[in-house]
Design brief:
disordered C terminus, 420 residues, 16 helices, mainly alpha, 65% helix
Length: 420
């Protein structure tokens, strides 16, 4: 897959800065302690999962940048070493920050995330080559739209399956499905903001499948498979997640994908509906939560629980991936996206910033600049991993056509004698 080296380097540097900020911000320097030995006897599975997932993009970006090396083993070793040494540097610095914990557990889980990212790129490339041989998946996995669509769909599945802790306990499974027995109570307590978020989100996934090149029937089959996987995964979650609002969103997405397939789904739809889904989250009040804090120009993401921060990063990063997919779909159809790839993310970041400012009047919200910054970072990563934009067939210009017709008219013979 052809990649832009400049874009990959910019995305890699941007993600390194994001990791450094999350690891070091909010703590003042103080007395240093022995590094890597502040981990207590209890290992948090939630923190370990968040630390692992946070470093997957770092290994993925490093592996993508080094993919052109002939020695694949050396490229893999460099990508993994970069992620591991970055984590080790953060842990050593945290040993001199009293508000942070320098832990060997964090280093190990971060390094495992970098290892997973470095392995995921060649594994995904082999999977894509295998899927291209299947008739129903060949169009979706064909470069250059296969990677952007996969990033968009994968990020959404991770979102709906949060907090990613599964169980086979029978009592928990029954509890996850208990809302089906109390339909009247669920209808009375129907949450419109939640329904809009999932409805628009699943529609964005359906239109992303259509924009990637799938036919209507293939897109519907794949969307139904994704819906079934999401429902099964949420039933197995240790924390109740599935609801009538999300089931309604799934049904709406299946219907919208089928109806839009008659005339073809527009390439702008994945980005448009992903933005609507994120806006439904941004503007939703949270009753019972204390009054919102004042607006902060410094991003607060990561200052609280790691899993919650990871969910937010996935949400806004998913929006950036949807923007990248829509732009590439436009380029595939012959549109010039050289200006739009700057204007679209900038305009979306402005809209998100306005919603953050508006959260100062929404109960239970804490406004800051995390949303636009993480969205821009997600767009950079998705655009860099997608490689150079596709070049579609440009439409013919009218003036050359008219000149060609005049030249043809001048060259036409005036004699009525048959050509034979």
């Amino acid at each position: 897959m052809d990649r832009s080296r400049t874009g990959l380097v910019a995305a890699l540097v941007g993600y390194l800065a994001f990791v450094a900020y999350q690891s070091l911000a909010g703590a003042a320097p103080g007395a240093c302690v022995t590094p890597l030995l502040q981990q207590g006897s209890r290992l948090s599975r939630g923190d370990g999962l968040a630390n692992l997932v946070a470093y997957v993009p770092l290994g993925l970006l490093a592996a993508a940048r080094l993919a052109s090396m002939r020695n694949r083993g050396l490229a893999f070793g460099i990508a993994f070493s970069l992620a591991s040494m970055c984590s080790l540097s953060m842990e050593l610095l945290q040993a001199c920050l009293p508000g942070r914990v320098s832990s060997w557990y964090d280093w190990v889980t971060n390094s495992a995330g970098g290892l997973l990212g470095a392995v995921a790129l060649p594994a995904a490339a082999r999977l894509a080559r295998a899927l291209r041989t299947r008739p129903g998946c060949a169009a979706a996995m064909e470069a250059p739209l296969g990677w952007p669509a996969a990033l968009c769909v994968g990020a959404w599945l991770l979102l709906v399956l949060a907090p990613w802790r599964f169980t086979l306990d029978v009592g928990t499974l029954r509890g996850n499905l208990a809302f089906l027995k109390h339909a009247a109570d669920a209808v009375a307590g129907f949450e419109p903001w939640r329904a809009l978020r999932y409805g628009f989100g699943w529609m964005a996934i359906g239109f992303a499948l259509r924009a990637s090149g799938l036919a209507v029937a293939d897109a519907l089959r794949l969307l139904a498979l994704l819906v079934a996987a999401a429902v099964l995964g949420q039933v197995l979650l240790a924390v109740p997640s599935l609801s009538f609002e999300e089931l309604a969103g799934m049904a709406l997405a299946l219907a919208a994908t089928a109806l839009a397939g008659a005339n073809g789904a527009g390439p702008r739809l994945p980005a448009a509906f992903a933005l609507l889904s994120v806006l439904a989250y941004q503007l939703a009040p949270q009753p019972g939560v204390p009054a919102p804090d004042t607006f902060s120009w410094w991003p607060r993401i990561g200052r609280g629980g790691l899993l919650g921060a990871l969910e937010l990063a996935l949400l806004f990063g998913w929006l950036g991936a949807a923007l990248s997919l829509s732009l590439r779909a436009l380029a595939q159809r012959g549109a010039d996206v050289s200006r739009r790839r700057v204007a679209w993310p900038a305009a979306t970041a402005g809209v998100l910033l306005l919603t953050e400012i508006a959260q100062g009047w929404i109960p239970g919200r804490s406004p800051d600049t995390s949303a636009p910054l993480v969205m821009l970072l997600g767009f950079m990563v998705a655009w860099a991993l997608g490689g150079a934009p596709p070049s579609g067939a440009a439409p013919a210009r009218p003036r050359p056509v008219r000149r060609m017709r005049r030249a043809t008219a001048r060259a036409a013979p005036t004699s009525r004698r048959p050509a034979a």
